[in-house]
Amino acid sequence: MKIQHLKLLNFRNYEKLEVSFSPVSNILYGKNGGGKTSLIESIYVLALTKSFRGSVDKVVIMNNKDVCRIEGTILDEYENNYKIIIKDGGKKVKINNTKIDKLSDYISKISVVLFNPDDLRFIKDSPSVRRKAINLEISQINNGYLKNLNMYNKLLKQRNTYLKTMNINANSSSEYLDILTNKLIDYGEKIYLSRKKYIDLLNEKIGEFYYKICQISNLNLEYNSDYDNFDRKKILKRYKDSLNRDIILGKTTFGIHHDDILFKLNDYSIKDYGSEGQQKNAIISYKLAELEIFNKIRGNYPILILDDLFSELDMVKINNIFGLLNENIQTFITTTEIDKINKDIIDKSKLFLIDDGIVKDG
Fold it and tell me: Which of 71, 203, 278, 304 is deepest in the core (most CB within 10 A)?
């Protein structure tokens, strides 16, 4: 999968931009604040309809403008035009000028894998951060997953609301709660199985990549879920056993919305016992494993974005990482120090000098 051409209108500090990319490697360089991260952010938003910077939609619109637009020509099996238009009141998406009514029908069309310095949050922060990331990744390769997740969250909200009603009114019927619980289990099982399959696939590759980067073995992911070794009767019993507590708290305390993923190196949690360097290398290994999963399932590699990688790792490990990439992967690299990049990488890349929203061929 490659992005051939990109057009921006009123996105961040880009009032108007048209740019074409190399199908292999693209290096975006310049001072901080010039617009490097905004440019790769626009590619990410085009693919996933949301920013990796945690911004609300309207923040990406240039100051004093009412609307922004991102448009890209993507070469997959065929060449297609994708467009996202963002206004203060919301956003809409189009493929080949045909409006797509549901974002869930759009999101799986363009695949992107991003490494960003903030990705250490994936290891260090709460389980909700890891669930959110996994949800986004699986949604790119499994359109049905996002629909199942949306239904699960809708049912979870309904169940929590009814639990609060039961707390206020002791005579509330338990039949409606049973219906919600059974439907919640139906969708929870589908989500659990999708997550388990995805994490099993990651574990087939992540240790190998970690060893090739660091010459250290035995990195793997541990998936912790209330639905582990799924057995419907046992899970129903767990919901019943939790019912009194759920009614008191007004929320569902059992289910796949509590899932977590741990990075384990030699059976020790990297979050608790690993150095920051080990954590960074684990994240990179995770991203490289993602590339292989996407290729295995979809038949092509996603677009790879490496944001500020050179400030995060030493040159030995960076060269090891680039040695693991092949020319079928379109890569975007941002850096403030182009002189740190290996000459062989530069020779194979298209260079872009970016300064204050102006992009020049480097």
Answer: 304
